[in-house]
Specification:
The complex is a heterodimer.
Chain A lengths: L1 H33 L4 H31 L1
Chain B lengths: L13 E6 L2 E4 H22 L8 H20 L3 H26 L15 H23 L1 H8 L2 H7 L3 H43 L6 H30 L5 H15 L1 H6 L1
Antiparallel strand pairs in B: 1-2
Classes of the chains: A mainly alpha, B mainly alpha.
Chain lengths: 70, 270
């Protein structure tokens, strides 16, 4: 039972951050294509924003591990 | 041993105990290895320093110079002041992550060596250190009462009357966002590295030799990015906390992304 719970937790928890990171990456590439001279600045902010989005996925990963270890 | 036998342990294994109740875990030992390497490299740099750099000195100067330039884009003028602690965080986390990839997997089943950052204890310690530092910078920049007044905004209540209530509640939300910062820092680093180690272990259990290599490559990149993210977020929070009100307008453009992502309330406050 707890295996299924962990599987659901990680699947649902990774779902939205994946969208978020995809969108961050897509927008960043688009703006780099539009303004190649601002590449380094965009890249920096992209990595930070992606880190925030990814952190949410990581929360659900930790929760899944905690459920498994119970 | 197959994949089905794999057991995931959050807690690091105790190798020996100094005295009852004071264990030395495998992640502590790898942390000492990291410290030894870093201090050794720093001392080697210090005592072979020459006016005309060559070899090793060139590499170190190139790496530090590149990082400093990168950091200046985020930290602005305050970059120079915070560079030592920034680079300490970066190098410690980078070496920890990579050390875990280099030797943790081989000995995973023996449970002897593991990346220090794959232990929640050490990432919480790192995040708390960062937290104390950027709170200290906040107190230093705004004064004790000025900084506390940022969170418990009685000044707005007195000045604006009932309308000041909004500012007051925004201030209370700031407390939450301030406390979320170290939590997110610790969990993000831990989750990434711990997850990476599990992925690598599973890859090694499933395939024999060549196929885990792409995963290892991925983990090397993730280790670098996470070290970078931790230290950059640390710097961003430090710059946010130590920003004076008058200098805030120029900073705001650069901060807007982190602001909105980290705490939606913040964007309204200024």
């Amino acid at each position: 039972m707890s295996t299924i719970a962990a599987a659901i937790a990680i699947a649902l928890g990774v779902f939205m951050p994946a969208f978020a990171i995809g969108r961050i990456g897509a927008q960043a590439v688009e703006s780099i294509a539009r303004q190649p001279e601002a590449t380094s600045k965009i890249q920096l902010n992209m990595i930070l924003a992606a880190a925030f989005a990814e952190g949410l996925g990581i929360f659900s990963f930790v929760i899944a591990i905690l459920i498994l270890n119970k | 041993m197959g994949v089905s036998d794999l057991e995931v342990h959050l807690a690091p294994k105790t190798v020996f105990e100094i005295m009852p109740g004071v264990p030395v875990t495998n992640t502590m030992i790898t942390m000492w290895v990291v410290m030894t390497i870093l201090i050794g490299l720093a001392l080697a740099f210090r005592y072979t320093m020459k006016y005309l750099p060559s070899g090793y000195q060139n590499v170190v100067e190139w790496a530090l110079g590149g990082l400093y330039n990168f950091m200046e884009q985020v930290g602005g003028k305050s970059a120079k002041k915070h560079f030592p602690i920034f680079i300490t965080f970066f190098l410690t986390i980078l070496f920890s992550n990579w050390l875990g990839i280099a030797m943790g997997i081989v000995a995973e089943e023996a449970g002897f060596l593991r990346a220090p950052t794959s232990d929640l204890n050490s990432t919480i310690a790192l995040a708390l250190t960062a937290f104390l530092y950027f709170e200290y910078q906040g107190f230093k920049a705004h004064g004790v009462f000025g900084y506390i007044g940022h969170f418990i905004n009685i000044k707005a209540l007195i000045k604006n009357g009932p309308m000041g209530l909004i500012d007051f509640f925004v201030g209370l939300l700031h407390i939450i966002s301030e406390l979320v910062r170290p939590t997110a820092l610790a969990l993000r680093l831990f989750g990434n590295i711990f997850g990476g180690e599990i992925v690598l272990t599973v890859a090694f259990l499933l395939f024999n030799a060549v196929l885990p290599l792409p995963f290892m490559m991925l983990e090397v990149i993730i280790g670098l990015i996470q070290a970078f993210v931790f230290s950059m977020l640390f710097l961003t929070f430090t710059a946010l906390n130590s920003a004076h009100e008058e200098g805030h307008e120029e900073d705001h453009k650069e901060e807007s992304v982190h602001d909105i992502a980290a705490n939606p309330a913040h964007a309204h406050a200024h």
